[in-house]
Amino acid sequence: MSRIAKNSIKIDKDIQCNFENGIFSAKGKLGEMSINIKPSFSINISDEDIRVIPKDENTKKDPIWGTTRALVANIIYGVSNGFSKTLELNGTGYRASVSGSVLKLQLGYSHDINFNIPKEVKIECPKQNIIKLSSFNKEKLGAAAAKIRSFRKPEPFKGKGIKYSNEYIFRKEGKKK
User: Fold this and answer.
1) In contact, 88 and 27? CB cutoff 8 Å
2) What is the CATH number of the domain that holds 31?
3) What is the residue-level pLDDT of the chain in tens, covering all 177 positions?
């Protein structure tokens, strides 16, 4: 039996939630999102909170109950507050810049890397070595950040590469003479 799934999700007054035909949708100041809910669960929407409720006793043991509650909570948090991630470029000559809907990366290769920014994700570069991503969709934000990071993952000897701002790079000792 899930402990997380039993908890209710608090909502603000400016968020409009709807649950019809197995589809939960939420609309807030940052955008609108919807998700398909399994038929074994229903969602009760009241003025201040939302609850994900299983339809029978057997689904109370199903781990999808907690996952469904977490997905609904992420949608509500996303349309009201939004999510953000920060990437740091470490290395000599590593630069990032945004021009239109393309992120240009100079990562020590013989060519520049052009990354097309997804529609739901906003990218800005306050400095040449910092990339700030923000979105109301947590899934698209994480996928975009992981794709950018995959162009040059941080290496353990000098720490060069693209890393998350809160990530710790475990350093290795080099060769000994």
Assistant:
1) no
2) 3.90.930.12
3) 668 888 999 998 889 999 999 899 999 999 899 999 999 899 999 888 999 998 888 888 888 888 999 999 999 999 999 999 999 999 999 999 999 999 999 999 999 999 999 999 999 999 999 999 999 999 999 999 999 999 999 999 998 999 999 999 999 998 887
Same domain (yes/no): 47, 88: no
The alpha carbon dihedral of 136, 7, 11, 86 has a sign of negative
Q: In one letter, which amino acid is 121?
A: V
- Is 71 in the same domain as 108? no
Q: What is the DSSP letter of 156?
A: T
> Is 160 in the same domain as 90?
yes
Tally of structural domains, the chain? 2
DSSP classification of residue 5: T
Are both 30 and 61 inside the same structural domain? Answer: yes
Q: What is the largest CA-CA distance in the chain?
A: 69
Contact between 28 and 43 under an 8 Å Cβ cutoff? The reply is no
| CA count, 13 A, side-chain hemisphere, 19 | 15
